[in-house]
Amino acid sequence: MAPPFDPADLPTGVQMPLSPLVARVLAPNPSPFTFTGTQTYVVGATDVAVIDPGPDEPVHLAALTAAIAGRPVVAILCTHTHRDHSPAARPLSEATGAPVIGCAPLTLEDDGPRADAAFDAAYRPDRVLADGEQVAGTGWTLEAVATPGHTSNHLCFALAEEAALFTGDHVMGWSTSVISPPDGDMAAYMRSMQRLLEREDAIYYPAHGDPIDNPQRLVRGMMGHRKQREGQILRFLARNGDSRIPDMVLEMYKGVDPRLHPAAGRSVLAHLIDLDQRGLVTATEDRWQMR
């Protein structure tokens, strides 16, 4: 029998080429919420962009410097400003002279359970990319694709030359994204997923988990999963009457690591808020019921 999988056993700080234009460097921050850690991508050959520079850890910054290998850095791009994605942007900018470009700054007090997902209050981009705006280097072009939902400021980046999409936390290779109110928005997330479904990307490079080589099938499956979860919530309330979120989580997330239950509760809350806005449920203090 194979030994239990431990993400901490995977090599960090090693540049792994994935395509002629894309390499990744895994940050040393594995957890139940980041899986093996945050994956930073280096895009380009003669000059490069760095996507999601990750946590401000000296060993990770040294690994990125080694991966850049003295090449000019055109831009440092961030998909969103959770602390496992953007804090290394500024020190890397100071080391390379590259501008920090990408998502808008967002500082929000999040009462969710994920310490790693707190917002990076120090993030100050030199340029914010609007949907459809581009950054280009020698032989590569990255286009911003607005995908709010996981966070309101979330961007994906499309690499036209390889029909690739860097999906940050919007679509991950190991789990569905946590949607944590008040900034996380389930209705916005589903609209963003529909937008990706209508694109023709051939491969996704997520910030956590392996590359996804049949992305439309995965997106359809993830959207179906969210619809199934919504149905579970409605059936639970129809059967049990007014209920609290922890009770829903215990039934609906059987077999899930209990450490993830608080985060699951945030996604359930996001579903309930969406259902409330659609006139299907209502709340009295911390108890929910059918309308």
TrEMBL record:
Signal peptide positions are none
Origin: domain of life: Bacteria
Tell me where in this chain the Metallo-beta-lactamase domain is found: 37-208
Looking up PANTHER family in the UniProt record yields: ENDORIBONUCLEASE LACTB2 (PTHR23131)
**What's this protein's name?**
Glyoxylase-like metal-dependent hydrolase (Beta-lactamase superfamily II)
Q: Species name for this entry? A: Sphingobium xenophagum
